[in-house]
Amino acid sequence: xxxxxxxxxxxxxxxxxxxxxxxxxxxxxxxxxxxxxxxxxxxxxxxxxxxxxxxxxxxxxxxxxxxxxxxxxxxxxxxxxxxxxxxxxxxxxxxxxxxxxxxxxxxxxxxxxxxxxxxxxxxxxxxxxxxxxxxxxxxxxxxxxxx
Length: 147
Fold this sequence. Notes:
By secondary structure, the protein is mostly helical.
């Protein structure tokens, strides 16, 4: 199920605007000179995985398949968000189809870019502390789920 050269990860017009702002303001050191677009996509996907939203504003290519093939773990990361969402009644073969994985990852990233847009409006000095606090909350939630 590797990426082919014709595969691509897409994003919407709103996400394109958000990425431009991230580059301009260097949110979390994520501007294009410091990080690969695939890293930004994966970060946005992880942020938005709890509430994927479909594009309402068209789609453009963000990352081409040949770029993704340089990082074979990226498809595993995209697949992992789906595996975590599977129910007993789901058709596993359908959900782990490469095309489904790519579209689902795009929808998660779409939500993640909206979350990043909200972060752009926060005080940069407090942003790291807020994210650490959020991480602590997630850790506590995870620990409690083990009981």
